[in-house]
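Board notes, transcribed. Complex of a protein with nitromethyldethia coenzyme A.
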Amino acid sequence: SNLLKDRLRELIPVKQALLRDIRKQYGQKEICKVTVDQAIGGMRNVFGLFYDISLLDSKTGITFRDYNIPEIQEYLQKAKNGNEPLPEALFWLLLTGDFPSDQEFKFVQEEWRRRGELDQETIKFITSLPKQLHPMTMLSLSILHLQKDSTFQKVYESGKATKPQYWEYYYEDAMDLVAKIPRVAALIYRHKYKNGDLISSDNSLDWAANYSHMMGFDQFDAYELFRMYLSIHADHEGGNVSAHATHLVGSALADQYLSYSAGINGLAGPLHGLANQEVLKWLIEIREKLGDKVSNEKIQEYVLNTIREGRVVPGYGHAVLRYTDPRYIHQKNFAERLIKDDPLVELVKQCYHVIPPVLKTIGKIQNPWPNVDAHSGVLLNHYGLKEFEYYTVVFAVSRALGCTANLVWARAFGLPIERPGSITMRWIEERFGEN
Ligand code: NMX
Ligand code: MLT
């Protein structure tokens, strides 16, 4: 039997009824007012999206179905002798709201093993991509290529898809996409950086460790890093660019592949996921220009110069968070536990003490504290993944968990096409002007 689909079949009518009740009871309540500034200013604090699988609090950070990062670390399945949560278990939690039993966890793991292989045509497509493309462009193209296998697209085209069943086809596509994306990503890495010297999957490994293995990193601690990384980046409520783009495109009934490829394109922007490559580039630049042992004063000066040049300090600031990102703290703890004497890791630690006070002096920056991207690069670098242009691909492998799980629920709830209104300057003047 299909444990996860069966569980969803039980849950969906219950949640649909709950949502109907919520609409009946609270449908006419006002959530917030929207000012002209908010409409022009990227809709900060405008709560206009319904996204049930995770929530972000500006002070305490992300919760996945109400559980924060220390809780998922404690309660989700871990590898033997490991400390980090396994993404298979997190995916079950995101989809169902429950912690999986060992049997349910193994079900997801087996399903992803079964669905994970790529056909020869896809391998040929990926290994023929021009090597000068950015790896995020390669990933987005490869996910679009996989769309040929979309169950939803096929059934919809046949005219046999009915609205109450849409979620089932989105579920099939979510499971296939998530099962395959580490292989796609590892193939891109080996094609672009290792002369196409491919490494086959090892199905005795869990999903995250297998990705690390296919990249060429076979230490236990590298496996742990991938388990941790792929869990903590999985979702960040619905308003971030990658989740929102996926949700929006999916609302037009574009399948999981078309929708997540759009999400990946947004993640590839330097103000969003690409910041993790920018952080490492920036830290290496500091060491090249200022030497191995950099003083706090020199870092302060470097930060101010970056800003004077009209650039942002990568890895710092956030549109919602107003304190240090708990995902940063989790990575800091990981580094303290497992990494000794790495100068770049030490530099990240030093920056954590030095940068926020400098950013506080620039009045306009709402959040001077580090976000998730400030730490991830030096950890990947430590275990041998030196090609920082590739870092956002690892982020994208993880974010597939949240974005695709949400689309299953978006279809289960029968959410309509997203179509907010927009306004012009003339509209604003006519509405609010004196005459
Ligand atoms: N360095 C320099 N200036 C900054 C920074 C920063 N780290 N953060 C914000 N500002 C500036 C921002 O550019 C804006 O300037 P202006 O009015 O001249 O356009 C001003 O401060 C106000 O911005 P905020 O309201 O504080 O931030 P906003 O919500 O608009 O943007 C980010 C949030 C995350 C885009 C912004 O903080 C940033 O660019 N950070 C650096 C890039 C980064 O680390 N992105 C990763 C985010 C996490 N992720 O993975 O997606
Ligand atoms: C994310 O993980 O998506 C980022 O922190 C950006 C965001 O939440 O806006």
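Residues 87 and 231 are 5 Å apart (CA to CA). The pocket of nitromethyldethia coenzyme A (ligand 1) is lined by residues 271-273, 275, 307, 312-319, 364-367, 371-373 (CB under 6 Å).
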